[in-house]
User: Which sequence fits this backbone?
């Protein structure tokens, strides 16, 4: 009887992440299903917009099959995906700027799944340990995200916008940090445009094999691409 009492809560705890994954997978399949309809582009724009503030599935999931189905439209698809993402990013910025303590913190904790901690009297986010070890807290500007914003400003928007990190985390916190809105918009256009156009071009150029490769290694490719890009800027800065 005692063993039954112990195993029941353990089973319940084990089942919880499975249910979350199942919900995420259902959303993923739902997004993917629109690729075979005539509403593919407007749904892509809608998802790209809401992903920038609240939706958990990135628009690349729908962008890839849409480009694969109509390779001659890859520029148009990447363009409108970028436009919608930037507009959605501005909405996320507004949430962070005007409603951080209510809606903003809820998004960060429940949708971006990032833990908040109090630093200098305000909610903040600890930077990943590997970044602090590899780059150093002094170069980053601090060990917490808003300290890094104070040091790097819109560069954070540009760099994080290229990575697999939830873009909603970037847009909402940029509003809290009060990054200049014009600079924020330019950084968003550059990062999201670069990301979506590169993905669309790869799919257009290499077709179905590229889709399998990108879907399997997307996170790794995004991180490597960002590191190469940032490293290139650092080299140019050193040389010039």
Assistant:
């Amino acid at each position: 009887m005692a063993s039954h009492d112990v195993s029941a809560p353990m089973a319940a705890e084990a089942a919880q992440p499975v249910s979350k994954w199942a919900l995420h997978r259902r959303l993923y399949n739902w997004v993917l299903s629109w690729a075979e309809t005539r509403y593919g582009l407007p749904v892509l724009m809608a998802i790209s917009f809401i992903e920038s503030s609240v939706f958990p599935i990135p628009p690349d999931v729908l962008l890839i099959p849409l480009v694969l189905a109509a390779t001659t439209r890859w520029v148009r698809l990447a363009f409108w995906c970028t436009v919608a993402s930037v507009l959605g990013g501005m909405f996320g910025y507004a949430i962070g700027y005007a409603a951080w303590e209510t809606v903003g913190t809820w998004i960060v904790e429940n949708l971006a799944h990032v833990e908040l901690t109090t630093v200098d009297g305000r909610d903040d986010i600890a930077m990943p340990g590997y970044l602090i070890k590899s780059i150093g807290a002094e170069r980053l500007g601090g060990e917490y995200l808003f300290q890094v914003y104070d040091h790097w400003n819109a560069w954070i928007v540009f760099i994080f916008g290229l990575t697999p990190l939830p873009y909603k985390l970037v847009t909402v916190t940029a509003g809290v940090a009060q990054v200049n809105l014009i600079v924020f918009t330019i950084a968003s256009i550059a990062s999201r445009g670069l990301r979506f156009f590169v993905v669309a071009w790869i799919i257009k150029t290499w077709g179905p094999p590229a889709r399998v490769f990108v879907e399997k290694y997307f996170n790794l490719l995004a991180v490597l691409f960002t590191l190469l890009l940032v490293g290139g800027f650092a080299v140019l800065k050193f040389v010039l």
Summary: Confidence is low (pLDDT under 50) at residues 1-18, 231-240. The chain has eleven helices and two strands.
